[in-house]
């Protein structure tokens, strides 16, 4: 936990209570969050995060003040990182929640935010030497709805999937939607590679609309790598591909090395890591 947090623009010691018992994020999961990788006290790929924030808040009818622009949140993150002396790599969580009042029906749609920051070990993305061993989580199916693409404060589905993953001694797990199609990893978007073609799921199949997913697609498209979309994968699809890549804002790209008796390569995964690091250097100047 960081030494200080940012609560609505003010720095407060992290060990002091900050939220009321009737906080709607706590009571109802009435909010969203972003997890952001930072370097040199700057949030990386933040435009993608801010656009997702704006789209998410519009969908759930939470209203931010006009002054809470992309630049405003960039500055708030920068100030917190400086306050906590996190000058190199850091992991930031920006949580936005509807203000207290009401029960299921809120008293108003105004919002508050909390930013926390912790140190992160690696300055640039790197592909781990060890790949992930995965399975399919099928005890619960993820619904397909406009809310499915959001990162909401209510994460019980993923908590249960994480418990299942640990109980089965796996590193990650594939999530199934209500049509029993594989759509994502536990905390990541899913890409398959077959014959140098990149396959991923559409936003309409129930997967999270990942910020790193968007960046990976942009990199691929800019380098003449064909990207094909699907409404979800089958187990057979998983078994016949060359690579399985999992992407998120913190790790960048990770690769699956084993699914049941099948083993996989990670050549394109390593290439994407190099491309991401070049983008970071450009972004930081």
Please tell me the CATH architecture of the largest domain by its name: Alpha-Beta Barrel
- Which ranges are low-confidence, i.e. pLDDT below 50, for 5 or more consecutive residues? none
CATH class of the largest domain: Alpha Beta
Q: What's the total helix number?
A: 7
Rg (CA only):
19 Å
In this structure, how is the largest beta sheet organized? 9 strands, mixed
Number of domains: 2
Shape descriptor:
globular
Order of helices and strands: EEHEEHHEEEHEEEEHEHEEEH
Total DSSP E strands: 15
Percent of residues in beta strands: 25-35%
Helix amount, in percent?
Answer: 25-40%
Q: Report the end-to-end length measured between terminal Cα atoms.
A: 29 Å
Return the structural class.
Answer: alpha+beta
Residue-averaged pLDDT: 96
For CATH, the homologous superfamily of the largest domain is named as: D-amino Acid Aminotransferase, subunit A, domain 2
CATH topology of the largest domain: D-amino Acid Aminotransferase, Chain A, domain 2
């Amino acid at each position: 936990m960081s030494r200080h947090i940012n609560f609505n623009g003010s720095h407060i010691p992290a060990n002091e209570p900050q939220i009321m018992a009737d906080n709607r994020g706590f009571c109802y999961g009435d909010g969203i969050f972003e997890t952001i990788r930072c370097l040199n006290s700057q949030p990386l790929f933040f435009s993608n995060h801010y656009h997702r924030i704006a789209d998410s808040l519009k969908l759930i009818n939470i209203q931010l003040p006009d002054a809470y622009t992309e630049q405003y949140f960039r500055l708030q993150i920068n100030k917190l990182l400086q306050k906590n002396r996190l000058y190199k790599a850091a992991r930031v969580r920006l949580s936005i929640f509807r203000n207290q009042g009401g029960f299921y029906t809120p008293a108003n749609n105004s919002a508050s935010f909390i930013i926390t920051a912790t140190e992160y070990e690696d300055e640039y993305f790197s592909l781990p030497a060890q790949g992930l061993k995965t399975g399919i989580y099928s005890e619960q199916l993820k619904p397909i709805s406009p809310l499915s693409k959001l990162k909401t404060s209510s994460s019980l589905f993923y908590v249960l999937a994480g418990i299942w993953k640990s109980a089965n001694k796996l590193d990650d797990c594939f999530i199934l939607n209500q049509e029993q199609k594989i759509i994502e990893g536990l905390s990541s978007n899913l890409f398959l590679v077959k014959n140098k073609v990149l396959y991923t799921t559409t936003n309409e199949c129930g997967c999270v609309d990942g910020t790193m997913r968007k960046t990976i697609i942009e990199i691929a498209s800019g380098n003449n790598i064909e990207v094909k979309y699907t409404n979800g994968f089958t187990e057979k699809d998983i078994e016949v591909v060359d690579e399985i890549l999992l992407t998120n804002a913190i790790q960048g790209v990770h690769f699956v090395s084993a699914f049941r008796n099948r083993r996989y390569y990670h050549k394109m995964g390593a290439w994407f890591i190099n491309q991401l690091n070049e983008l970071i250097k450009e972004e930081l100047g």
